[in-house]
Amino acid sequence: MATTETTATRAKVKGGVSAYRLRFYLGLIITNIVMLMIVVLTAIPYIYMAFSAFKRNDEIFGTPLTIWPRVWVWDNMQRLLSEFPYGRWYLNTAIVAGVGTVLSVLLASLAGYAFAKYNFRGRNLLFTLMLLTLLIPFQVLLVPQFQIIRALGWFNTYQALIVPGAVTAFGIFLMRQYTIGVPDELLDAARIDGASEFGIWWRVVLPLVRPGLAVLAILSFTGLWNDFFWPLIVTTNPSMFVINLGLASLVGPYDYQYGILLSGALLASLPVIVVFFIFQRQFIEGLTAGAIKGF
């Protein structure tokens, strides 16, 4: 009798485990299918852009819609580089995105370090006021920023493209959250060893918040590289155009050279992709670590 009950219990447990495994693997399969569909839907526009850069206009808008070019047109890329100052636009964008990213990361880290590790009068009030600026739409600040740029005589200069975005409230908030996790004992030990406050920030704090720096660097670089509206406001000289503004200037009222435009868009997307793949591990680690930081 006991043997029969034990066998029945084992069969029941085995059946329950089998049902659990079945539900687990079924859920895993469904999740992977959904993720694959999202990846495909996200990647199709970029794949179509990459191949359409080597098509003629009639093939780009022809029916049926095809991804693979019937005839490879290499002239689009050649005309883009020879007939238009695309190299200059590329250089302008690289300077603005590179310098702006470095300034954004360093200044946000300094401010975040101050808010996280220094007890000064009005710290919480100042931090709250800074966060409230995130609620102000960018369009509201256009007129004051425009007047400041005009008063400084910065039209058609790199300063106008870099300085307004060199410090952001989000960047300071992000770096403050990461810096909170740095143990105070390390900072006190560095002070006892005679390190200056700048040395503590440079040699102790920055190495410990590298995931946060990677997150902010990728976000800043992507935002500056893809920026269109602000360069449209402060630049009128074609030699100071960034890539997006330069490509927009190629669109005429009657003539649309989409092959050339897509060639420019293809080249413009490469640096962002490269930067992400270089820092993707730190980026993912930074997002994961930032998700568990306290306010």
From TrEMBL:
Q: Does the keyword Transmembrane apply?
A: yes
Record field: transmembrane: 24-48, 89-113, 125-146, 158-179, 200-222, 228-251, 258-279
Which GO cellular component terms, listed alphabetically, does the Swiss-Prot or TrEMBL entry include? Answer: plasma membrane
Record SUPFAM superfamilies: MetI-like
Q: What is this protein called?
A: Monosaccharide-transporting ATPase
* Pfam families for this protein: BPD_transp_1
Family, according to the entry, reads as follows: Belongs to the binding-protein-dependent transport system permease family.
Q: How does it sit in the membrane?
A: Multi-pass membrane protein
Which organism is the protein's source?
Thermobaculum terrenum (strain ATCC BAA-798 / CCMEE 7001 / YNP1)
- GO process terms (BP): transmembrane transport
Report the leader peptide range: none
Entry keyword annotation includes Cell membrane: yes
Going by the entry's taxonomy, the superkingdom of the source organism is recorded as Bacteria
Per UniProt, residues of the ABC transmembrane type-1 domain are 90-279
Alphabetical list of InterPro entries matching this protein: MetI-like, MetI-like_sf
GO molecular function, one example?
hydrolase activity
Query: Where in the cell is the protein located?
Result: Cell membrane
Q: Which EC number(s) does UniProt give?
A: 3.6.3.17
What coarse category fits the chief subcellular location reported for this protein?
membrane
Keywords for this protein = Cell membrane, Hydrolase, Membrane, Transmembrane, Transmembrane helix, Transport
